TrEMBL record:
Physiological role: Specifically methylates guanosine-37 in various tRNAs.
Lineage: Bacteria, Bacillati, Actinomycetota, Actinomycetes, Bifidobacteriales
Record keywords, A-Z: Cytoplasm, Methyltransferase, S-adenosyl-L-methionine, Transferase, tRNA processing
Record has Magnesium as a keyword: no
tRNA methyltransferase TRMD/TRM10-type domain ranges (all copies): 1-247
Primary localisation category: cytoplasm
Subcellular location: Cytoplasm
The keyword Cytoplasm is annotated on this UniProt entry: yes
Name the UniProt record assigns to this protein: tRNA (guanine-N(1)-)-methyltransferase
Length: 280
């Protein structure tokens, strides 16, 4: 996968050279490049922002700077034929990479989207700053056929898009085949699988530590009992922390033991999608 990140602070992403992501780059699984947006400015101050139209506090990132940057990274100006083949047709329609802008007012990024994006060949991330980027930037490229997405990583506001991009890059790249040394470690993680349950609690040695013991069933060597214990723990944890996930479960995905656990927690399992009992 090829990843381009555009930011006014490209050095922010030096940390992406560490650990597994750094190894993935060294092995060629991921090709990650950062770009300084100011490289596409033409004034002495290297300005990337201006005052908001209609008034208001702060500054907004200018569309013309972003357009020069993105046109070059994508492969040329809209409507031109390029050697890369990523820009084509007299209508100016684009094809090729997925363009992603972090935006606190956008759709919430989740594991499903990370999994989808892990199958893409190329992603370009644009990091907003100040009061954000001119709304015409994503509109312009979306109208020309590019896959443009805007994501929020949570219900809070950051100083810029760099932290959000780092989160998304890590969530996406670790799902690429060959990235993880042991691919099985991904299978039962939180939000993975069709149900999207939270992962069960994990333990390691020693079996007793500061008066706290590892659940005895995990030491039994009975794999069926261990799997059932972990499944029960996952259901219980999800019901407590993320009841919205339980509400979306389909009854066909639950066995008798699952129903017993959820019923004991006060869930009404009648109907296709379980709903929490009114008395709770």
């Amino acid at each position: 996968m090829k990843i381009d990140i555009v930011s006014v602070f490209p050095d922010y992403f030096d940390s992406l050279r560490l650990s597994l992501l750094g190894k993935a780059q060294d092995s060629g699984i991921v090709d990650l490049q950062t770009h300084d947006l100011r490289q596409w400015t033409h004034d002495v101050h290297r300005s990337v922002d201006d005052t908001p139209v209609g008034g208001g506090a702060g500054m907004v990132m200018k569309p013309e700077v972003w357009a020069e940057c993105l046109d070059e990274l994508i492969g040329g100006k809209p409507g031109d034929l390029s050697s890369s083949g990523e820009l084509s047709g007299s209508s100016g329609e684009l094809s090729g990479p997925v363009l992603i802008f972090p935006n606190p007012a956008a759709l919430l990024f989740n594991q499903k989207q990370a999994n989808d994006l892990s199958r893409k060949e190329r992603i370009i991330f644009g990091c907003g700053r100040y009061e954000g980027y001119d709304a015409r930037i994503p509109t312009y490229y979306r109208e020309r056929g590019l896959d443009v997405r805007e994501y929020s990583i949570g219900d809070y506001v950051l100083n810029g898009g760099e932290a959000a991009v780092s989160v998304m890059v890590e969530a996406i790249t670790r799902l690429i085949p060959g990235f993880m040394g042991n691919p099985d470690s991904i299978v039962e993680e939180s939000y993975s699988g069709a149900e999207g349950l939270l992962e069960y609690q994990q333990y390691t040695k020693p079996a007793q530590w500061r008066g706290l013991e590892v659940p005895s069933v995990l030491l039994s060597g009975d794999h069926a009992k261990v799997n059932r214990f972990r499944r029960d723990d996952s259901l219980t944890k999800t019901a407590r922390i993320r009841p919205d996930i339980i509400e979306r479960l389909e009854c066909s995905a639950l066995d008798k033991a699952d129903c017993k656990i959820l019923g004991g927690l006060g869930w009404d399992l009648s109907g296709l999608h379980p709903r929490k009992s009114q008395e709770l």
